[in-house]
Hints:
Helices cover 35% and strands 14% of the residues. The chain has helices spanning 9-17, 37-43, 56-86, 117-120, 157-169, 196-215, 239-244; strands at residues 127-131, 137-141, 146-148, 151-152, 174-181, 222-228, 248-254. It is α+β, with helices and mostly antiparallel strands.
Amino acid sequence: MPPPRNGSLGRGLGDLLGGVPETIGVAGAPPPSVEPVAERAEQVPVTVAGKPFWTPARCLMAFSAGLVLVLGGAAIGTWAASRMEQSPPLASPVIVVTNTVTLPPEPPQPKSVVDRADLDSLKGIGILAQREKGESVRVMFEAPVFSSRVVLDPDQRPVLQQLGKVLAKHAGEWEVRIVGHTDSVPMRGSGLYRDNKELGLARAMEVMRVLCREANVPASMMVAATAGDENSPFAGNDPEASRKNRTVTLVIRLSP
C-alpha cells in the first residue's frame, strides 16, 4: 500500500495535536524538529481578558449613592409637607371687572292712587275732593270762582292760594288738569268769546295764572281744558246752579 500523501492524515493529526508538523504522519521520515517551548510561547500572541466594570467596590458605591438619594428625597418631601400645613390657606381669588357700566338709579315708584290727605285738609275753606273712577281725584269749589265771565271772585283768591300751596308740595308727583265750566245760557252777540267752550277755556287759563303767580305752582304740572256748558259740576237750570257753575274743577292724577 502506498503511503498516504502529505497533507491528509498528517494534516488531520497535526490539527488534532495543535501545531505538530504535517510530516509526522509519513512513515520512515526523520523525526521533526521540535522548537523549544519558550520560543513558541514568545511567538504565540496572548490575549488578556478586560477587567469587568461592575466590581464589588463599584456596586457598593452605586448602592450607597441610591440610598442617599432616596433618604434625601424623603426628607425634602417631609419638610415641604410640614411647610404647607403651617402656611395659611390661600385667599379666594379677587376678580376685577373693568369697563363696567353704571346704571342710573331707578326712579321711585309712585303711589297707586293720589293721596287725598292734604286736599281733605282744605275742606274747611270750601274745597271738596272726590275720588273718581280709577286713580284720579276731582276737586270742586262750593262757591262760584268767578263773579262774571273771567273776573275772579275776590273771596276765592285766598282759597286758590291755599290750594296752590298743596299742589306745589306735590310738584313732580301730580298732574293737574284745570277744566273751565259755564252755565247753560248760550253766549249772545259778537263778544270776546264765541261760545261757552271758549269762555270755559278762558276761565281755566285765568285760574292757572293765579296758581303760578301767587302760589308758585309749576306750570309744567298743569294743563288748561274746557267743558263749556257740558258736564256741569252743579246740575239744574235755576239761578243758584247757574251761579255756582261759573267755576272750574281740577282733575288730579299721578304723574306718569
